[in-house]
Amino acid sequence: MDKLIVGSEEWCGLPLLGLPAVKARVDSGAKTSSLHAFNIRKFTRNRDTWVSFEIHPLQKNDELVVRCEAQVVDRRTVKSSSGTAERRYVVKTNITLADQTFEAELTLTNRDSMGYRMLLGREAMSGRMIVDPEGSCLQGERTITECNQMYGVNPTARTALKIGVLASNPDLYSNRRLIEAGEARGHEMVFLNIKQCYMKMDADNPEVHYRGGAILNDFDAIIPRIRPSMTFYGCALARHFESLGVYVQNTAEAITSSRDKLFSLQLLQKSGLDIPTTGFANSPMDTNDLIEMVGGAPLIVKLLEGSQGRGVVLAETGKAAESVINAFKALRANLLVQEFVKEADGKDLRCFVIDGKVVASIMRTAAPGEFRANIHQGGSASSVRISAEERKLAIKAAKTLGLKVAGVDIIRSRKGPLLLEVNSSPGLEGIEGASGKDVAGAMITAIEKRFARRLKG
């Protein structure tokens, strides 16, 4: 039999796996061939060990997914080209290249970062092929149109996304609006109660489960709406979805950074963003110096764990400030001391940032007798036109914390705009009502842009 002359890449078929066309990287330096696989699940059939797995068979196309099944012939540790050792399932199947069909072993591994969905190693090539490293697809090329036809893909068809809203209360305005906005655009929207999700951590088959046993690995995107009291577990779930390759609109790392008020202020300060002068100390012995550090009374005392205006106190005199700070410290509560910007006059700006753009902005005014604007505590909100400087500050703040969606709070001072804080799960009711903008729709649109190739047409 004449040996095939192959290039550095060739189109192969894996007919027993239902894969008519997969472009393989030809690598005589690798002993065993490998195939891209994810969501690998082991099961038993006729007392033999099998695996089911999914594959993106075409390069640069994460939308097309084919499910395959194969009998396991071995499980062995393989060292990748980067030197990382990984324990992989090994299957044996037929490979078709040009007019030849032969049986070969394939190890299963996630090759998303490698580009090629398959690697053809020297064991499969031995006695059959000669490699011309300067050549490419010497045994025939495949066009995108041909590949789409082989897999029955209609590239002009709009395919809905499956989007989960990971939150605690399905009746909350923000969560209802996101569900409505996604459904209005033809997507499958699912509310996922954080407390009813649980995780399976497994190197070969990680999963997210829902109460009752449903497996949640088939989501395209997750919108995390995690309340402060659920930050630890909610972020653990978000992180697990990320590890499964699901797009999470705000990552667990970004949410965690934004929820730590001290750490977030340190990050914002490091990026050169203007914030009110803030002090932090661990010992009550440092109280007086802490007060002087921020310019004396009146001043603001903030609990690090507070949210939606809770745990924020105005101390109008030095004596009051000392009492409040020491009282909190006696309870071993972590707190910040912050300068009081009198000229803000109980008003602040909420800028809603999505993918690096301010899509809506409002001015919030404190309720009578209150010093801080908060619509959760009787304050009011109105649409406002922000300055270029305020817009730039909001966008840079969200980017600094790595948030794709953020509510950025700013106050106007004699020194210019000052950044108060950045919220990773900003409410929609106040800003949609006051601005008249479809903010929920803008969040869905931002997700659609991540899947533009699937949704085009």
Characteristic key phrases:
Cathepsin D, subunit A, domain 1; Rossmann fold; Dna Ligase, domain 1; nine-stranded mixed β-sheet; 12 helices; 24% helix; 35% strand
What do you see in this structure?
24% of the residues lie in helices and 35% in strands. It is α+β, with helices and mostly antiparallel strands. Among the domains are: 4-150, Acid Proteases (Cathepsin D, subunit A, domain 1, Beta Barrel), CATH 2.40.70; 162-257, 3-Layer(aba) Sandwich (Rossmann fold); 277-340, 2-Layer Sandwich (Dna Ligase, domain 1), CATH 3.30.1490. The strands form 6 sheets. A 9-stranded mixed beta sheet has the order 2-3-10-4-9-8-7-6-5. A 5-stranded antiparallel beta sheet has the order 25-24-23-26-27, sandwiched between helices. It has a 4-stranded parallel beta sheet with strand order 13-12-17-18, with helices on both faces. Strand 15 (207-210) and strand 16 form a beta hairpin. Helix 4 (231-243) packs antiparallel against helix 5. The protein is elongated, with a radius of gyration of 28 Å. The relative contact order is 0.10.
